[in-house]
Amino acid sequence: MNRRSVIKVAAGSVAALALPSCALASHERSLSELAKSRGLSFGCAISRRVLQDDQYRRLIESHCDTFVGENAFKWQYLEPEERAHQLDEAQWIANFASEHGRLLRGHCFLWNHHQRMPPWLVNLAARIMPSQSPELTRHMWRHGQFLARSFPDIQSWDAMNEAIDPTTGLLRETHFSRVLGNRFFDLAFRILAKKMPSARLVYNETMSWEAKGTHRDGVLRLLERGLSRGLPIHTLGIQSHIGKTVAKERDELAWRRFLEDVQGMGVDIALTEFDCSDRNIAARDKQIRDNEVAAHSKGYLDLTLSFTNVRELILWSLADKHSYMNRNSYPKRRRRSDGLPLRGHPYDEGLKSKSMMTAIQSAIQHAPAR
User: Fold this and answer.
1) What is the DSSP letter of 306?
2) How far does the chain reach from its first CA to its final CA, in angstroms?
3) pLDDT tens across 105-114, in order?
4) What global pTM score does this model have?
5) How much is the pLDDT for 10?
6) Helical pair 3-15 and 286-304, crossing angle rounded to 10 deg
7) What ranges in the chain are assigned the alpha helix state H?
8) Spatial separation of the C-alpha atoms in residues 302 and 297, rounded to whole Å
9) What is the average pLDDT across 203-218?
10) What is the DSSP letter of 236?
């Protein structure tokens, strides 16, 4: 059977079981209930803006036992000016999760990226020398204390986000790494461990099963070194924006070996931002694109969820209607060349379920219990 036939068969099987729009049929199980039966948690990213859509909010409530804020808990949004905090959005999300009895992930404490940290902090790091590092680290300790005091109910935090340069496999060169070197990574975990001793701490990285192993190898080295220094790295967050591997080379054997290595370290895994853009699919027809996305997603999840140290499956959106991929801020280089809206989530722009929905259901249902 050729690859196109495999896609056709997989898509046909999932399309037959697609969920109705916006609500679950009486005989259907929510994704969180299905995930719970396998020892997994299921959730997605939220913001106050997207939850103003009542139908989408009901969809979120039906399927998710875990939430994560899209941007609200990032330092650059919480403290855009030094000591001038803006808590409204983050507190609204925290209250929404609490009122609905859902778990809330903290995303994120530190980010080894200039564009993703407060400009005032980047400017500080740019002008000081390594000998002046306490000027930087005192703000890091202060921010850790602020998070612990402001959001005491969050029990899982992305302590560090995207530390590795994917092109080199080394610590990304930033003003933060220039001043602190590997201590920047270490302090992310040591500060939160001190301020939030009961929280599970996550290293979150943008990767999946790409063919080139430079990024994976760099992440493994970072984990190995961190664990050898006694860092409390409880979980590896794998963002899993797998659309970049659709119609591209990927190395499933290397991916399996990578997951085996992480499991061998005693580190759990969370799929933290799962989606599958269709930007590399040439067809304009929606059903063809949706079917290929579904087949690709199921292949990735079948392999990855076969590892019982994978504990969470978090989507960055449930629906194309509210996808970050279709906002004006999304980079042009990551859009479709024909200008069509991207379709990378299990529900479409009308909140109708797609073949990707049942691909996810099937992968969870057939995953081993943990």
Assistant:
1) T
2) 33
3) 999 999 999 9
4) 0.93
5) 35
6) 90
7) 3-15, 31-37, 54-63, 75-78, 88-99, 119-127, 134-150, 175-180, 183-195, 214-228, 252-264, 286-304, 355-365
8) 8
9) 96
10) E
